[in-house]
Design goal:
Blueprint lengths: L14 H9 L57 E2 L9 H6 L10 H18 L7 E6 L4 H9 L6 E6 L2 H12 L3 E6 L8 H10 L4 E5 L1 E2 L4 E2 L2 H11 L4 E5 L11 H4 L3 E5 L10 E6 L1 H8 L12 H12 L11 H14 L4 H21 L16 E5 L6 H10 L2 E2 L1 E2 L9 E5 L3 H4 L5 H15 L7
Parallel strand pairs: 1-12, 3-4, 3-5, 5-8, 8-9
Antiparallel strand pairs: 2-10, 6-7, 9-10, 11-14, 13-14
Amino acid sequence: MAVCRGSYYGDGWCPEKLLRMNRGGAPEGQRPALEINTPFSSERQSSQEDDLPYTPLQRPPPEPNYSTKNTNMSTQPEHPALLIPGPIEFDDEVLQSIGHYSQSHVGPPFVATFGETLTMLRQLMQTSSPASQPFVISGSGTLGWDFVAANLAEQGDDVLVLHTGYFADSFTDCFQTYGINATQLKAPIGDRPQLPEVEQALKEKKYKIITVTHVDTSTGVLSEVKALSELVHKVSPETLIVVDAVCSVGSEDIQFDEWGIDAVLTASQKGIGCPAGLCIMMYSGRAIETFKNRKTSPGSYFASLKNWLPIMQNYEAKKPSYFATPAVQLIHALHTSLTQVLARPLSERFAVHHEASQRIKSTISSYGLKQLASKPENQANGMTAIYLPDGVKAPEILPHLLKRGVIFAGGLHREIAPKYIRFGHMGVSVVDPARKDVDKALEALKEGLGEVGYQVPS
């Protein structure tokens, strides 16, 4: 039996054994298989060509010409407008990208596409720090919770979870699964914890992490991340700031460097406008150093930064790398959607979302309806959670909207779920002026309310 002369890794991997496996035991004189980067091998450049040459993306990309698009979505089968807080409607070009022909995940063309995608995520989250690192992993946004719990905290650590709805409960459950002590700071339904309350909590106990849901999909409550981050850095500077931004990236401003955030986790299927299946994250240099200084091994194998950090660094450097096979076609779609998002200044995109949100909320109010988030400063720009009239339940009205070609979501907050519905207004349904999804939805809601016995004020 051959003796491994490489350094030993705690998980039992031997570099020399891995190299032999990678070469496939090629006979003498025969060209070895493609050598690739893994978390356990040194960096190597690919020497093999993929099936087609790669043409680098030219910058800046052309702005999508939404004004000339067919409002009937000519390349998509006719279907109801999906206006829930994710997944959202997708642009034709994004859906075409997911049909990309099969490629090697370690071939130069895909490696270059993946590298560009990671770089564009830096632009979207507004970080230029070389110490920060974007991640794109196969999985839902929920996987981001596991990454935080498994890598940034250790068993017995204390974390503070700011509660604005259903997803703070779920994040708490995730922490507890890893043996982490999670304390919730709760606000009334439709509100958010106030800064003086947060300050008091931080002064009473040392927390390894504080988490905030930027937009809670269950309530439509928007948290003020900038002011919160300033407070944490002032009162408890050693505490890591983690933002659950699954329902905010792409429709709300996130300034990763300027605000001093340590981790943002999101998903592909909401404001970014790409089909579901990708967990997207940004980690600060401080968060990565916290991981490197752990006293114990990460609590997960698949969600371990030990395995994924070198892979993402290599892909961003346009070097082939492997730990687990990426979702090649989804990453092509993400590349297309990010190209579209970044084709105009982010400030313009956020302004369009804000204007659409204000119009929707004003119309909802004119219907005599109220929002869960009653205070303007608590209202998200990419969704609206709407209380139904007394005596009307979500399962009664949703079918009437569907008949009119509109899909809203029912309530999700366990205490009041039947009493409200959720209207998602982000991405292409908002930024494409040729689409009339929002107008159609507001009219369908008005007519649907009439059919269940509620007359909208004239």
